[in-house]
Amino acid sequence: MGRKRKGAAVHGWVVLDKPEGVTSTQAVASVRRVFDAQKAGHAGTLDPMATGVLAVALGEATKTVPFAMDAEKTYRFTARWGEARDSDDAEGRITANSDIRPSPEQIQAVLPGFVGQIIQVPPAYSAIKVQGERAYDLARDGEVVSLEPRPVIVHEARLIDAPDCDHAQFEIRCGKGTYVRAWVRDLALALGTFGHVCRLRRTAIGGFQEKDAVPLETLQHSMHSPAAFEHLRPISTALDGIPALAVTGPDAVRLRSGNPILMRANLFARLSEEADNDDLQGLTVYLSTGDGEPVALAALRAGELRPFRVFNFGTG
After folding, report:
1. Measured between alpha carbons, how far is 34 from 42 in angstroms, rounded to an integer?
2. I need a surface site. Which of 70, 256, 310, 313 has the fewest CB within 10 A?
3. Whether 141 is catalytic
């Protein structure tokens, strides 16, 4: 008989406004304590100096983390010109200086080259694994970290303000794996200078928005109280853009046992309306009961809905 997990069976998402100076791991641990939850995770690390949207999954919501991780993200940030830092942000050690300060017109001229699919070398101080070790751990130990260039997508980038010659404020909307620190570093080099991020805030990740984020301090005031649950969002919040279907009781039982169900004509008709896709084979579908209780994530294959993530709302 398995050992019962400590804590309560709490399921859902918390849109946290992470404060500066707290790691993502520390923030998740704090949220977990507030709800006394058995299990918690997050969708995308924020550096300690960064603030803003940290989507925290509790319980069965952790099964939808990969979908939130793949979602578009939006950042507002400030670049500091004239200094290169080993971490590409204000927390690192200065490694080079330049007297060159780009004008707003010069920035606007090179900005189009940093939109679309671009190639980035991730910062040495990143969570990418190198031979089983986190790159930032190796870098902090003084080792030279060499990371491979990789393609990333920047959907949109705009210069918001240039309050003085040393600083410029930007907003970008980007895909998975994009490093704002690397983006600023490379933009500065294209402008003939050096640069790093001195302020960073994430304002959105998929369906999780800044306007809905609760400050960590506010949440901590609701420790182990019903008030905390006002900030708990449905599991489906992370599945923005994924077609949803309601299933009957018998089908829900089959799916929860890990068995496929037939893609009946009525379900297929509703799915065809939901999904803007001529070829539905392999499409991921979110299934819930008529009452809205999550059942499973399934893929449509050979006329069947085959579950690959089943939601289990047991107590331990």
Report:
1. 15
2. 313
3. no
Which of the residues 47, 88, 89, 251 is marked catalytic? 47
pTM beyond 0.85: the answer is yes
Q: Are strands 167-174 and 73-81 parallel, antiparallel or unpaired?
A: antiparallel
Tell me how far apart the terminal alpha carbons of the chain are, to the nearest angstrom. 12
CB contact at 8 A, 114 and 153: no
CATH number of 241-310: 2.30.130.60
Domain-wise residue ranges, the chain: 12-71+207-238, 73-205, 241-310
What pLDDT score does 273 carry? 67
Instruction: Calculate Rg over the CA atoms of the chain.
Output: 22
> Which CATH number does 73-205 carry?
3.30.2350.10
Residues comprising the chain, all counted: 316
Give the residue with greater pLDDT, 155 vs 243: 155
Q: Which of 73-87, 125-139, 251-265 has the lowest mean pLDDT?
A: 125-139
pLDDT confidence of residue 299: 92
Render pLDDT for 110-148 as a digit per residue (tens, 0 to 9): 999 999 999 998 887 666 666 666 666 666 656 666 778
The single residue listed with the structure tokens 């805030």 is 201
∠ CA 131-133-136, nearest 5°, is: 125
